[in-house]
Amino acid sequence: MSEDHAKAQGIKVKKGLFLWTASGRAIANGRFDAVTKLLFDDSPEAHGKILGGGMVGTHAGDMIGEIALAIEMGADAVDIGKTIHPHPTLGESIGMAAEVVHGSCTDLPPGKK
Question: What is the pTM of this model?
Answer without folding.
Answer: 0.92
